[in-house]
């Protein structure tokens, strides 16, 4: 029956043939040679895949052992709460048989329950309990832990319901891996309406139910490293919104207030970060760290005990060696006393013999002291002379240093004078160069000045010649104007005469017209009419002017 029930709970196929083969009948009984544990390990536990309900498995184990071991004393917790405490004990107990829970884990569990009840932790009370516990044993068994929690020693002032709710909250966190749970509104994917759901956050999934009794499950939100959670602004009359993005779906959720919204966002983000890092849930990781710390402390304590034993053994060996040395010293002291007695006798004999030698030694020492005094006086004089020589040597050194410094200063001044002389020579050469350049510039300026003066004289002479030519031309112009006036008068007189003559001829002869000889050369036309000179006459006058100009030059 036990094997069949285990196979049913663990989802392992039951093999009655293997059971009969393992527990075959023999003369000594059916289970005397073939124990149950080998069968359990080989045919049941090795076939477990992990896809079974751990709570149901724990309930079966609780059913097998609770009736026999549970205390008959009245407790402040129910049988269901005792079962949950028993399961928590199996999670927090040490990995060795018989199972016990150490004081550190007891303190951790009681703190969690106290925090869940909303009460203050009484550290001083637990320290007294821990001291009393450590004096008798290493820890508590599962039934002793149930008695401790059921007795109400660390939950005074709390009713049964509050204690039960606290145990249930710790059970959900440590055993069911419930990181957070509570009511929130969820927006539907099809109808787009908002429905209140009971959400349960676990390390890799968020499940939501109709109510907190977890009977009617409505769906799951599978979490992985690619998921993310974001806060949303208020919209459609809904407040405290946030969004959970997964690979295939997106979920819009509304919390009851801003604090709940922030708590859920932080819890979901922490869960996603743990999935990305491949880390276990926080309470399991903390349990592992506490266990490693205890193992480390235990190893250090064992090492300390081993060292103490080695020191104790070494101390015992030292005590034995000291006892042996003490005995050897006592024997040596007896021998030394005997030898001292003999030495005293020998000393009395030698004392008389050495007294004479002592007298002689005194005389010799007196002489040596006189010699030493004389040598000391000589040595003092020698040292005085050495001190005087050292003083003279120091003065000589100082004089040499002064002379060396003076030479260095003289060399510096000499170098400075040489540099100033070189600079003066260079400046003098530069000044001479500038003087030569100035002389050359003055000479060039004088030559240019003389040349300019010559040019000026030539230009003045040319100007005088030009002025004379201009005066000559002015005279010629005046003469030409006078000639022009004379010719003009003559022309007017001739014209008047011709006009009167023509009038007379016309008057006397009627329409008879005289034929007059015309000029062979074309007449020049000016602004006042026909010119007084012909072109040939103008050319003649131009040649005459050019000849006069050449003669004057």
TrEMBL record:
Entry annotated with the keyword Cytoplasm: yes
Q: Name one GO cellular component term.
A: plasma membrane
Q: Which residues form a coiled coil?
A: 283-504
- Identify the domain of life: Eukaryota
**Which PROSITE patterns is this protein grouped with?**
PH_DOMAIN
Assign the protein's first listed, main location to one coarse class.
Answer: membrane
Where do the PH domain residues begin and end? 177-273
Q: Gene3D superfamilies, alphabetically?
A: Pleckstrin-homology domain (PH domain)/Phosphotyrosine-binding domain (PTB)
Q: Where does it live in the cell? A: Cell membrane; Cell projection, Lamellipodium; Cytoplasm; Nucleus
GO MF annotation list = DNA binding
Keywords from the named record: Cell membrane, Cell projection, Coiled coil, Cytoplasm, DNA-binding, Membrane, Nucleus, Phosphoprotein
Sum up the protein's function in the record's words. Answer: Phosphatidylinositol 3,4,5-trisphosphate-dependent guanine nucleotide exchange factor (GEF) which, independently of RAS, transduces signals from tyrosine kinase receptors to RAC. It also mediates signaling of membrane ruffling. Regulates the actin cytoskeleton as an effector or adapter protein in response to agonist stimulated phosphatidylinositol (3,4)-bisphosphate production and cell protrusion.
Q: How the protein assembles, per its UniProt entry?
A: The SWAP complex consists of NPM1, NCL, PARP1 and SWAP70.
- PANTHER family noted in UniProt: SWAP-70 RECOMBINASE, SWITCH-ASSOCIATED PROTEIN 70
Name-wise, this protein is: Switch-associated protein 70
Q: Which organism is it from?
A: Callaeas wilsoni
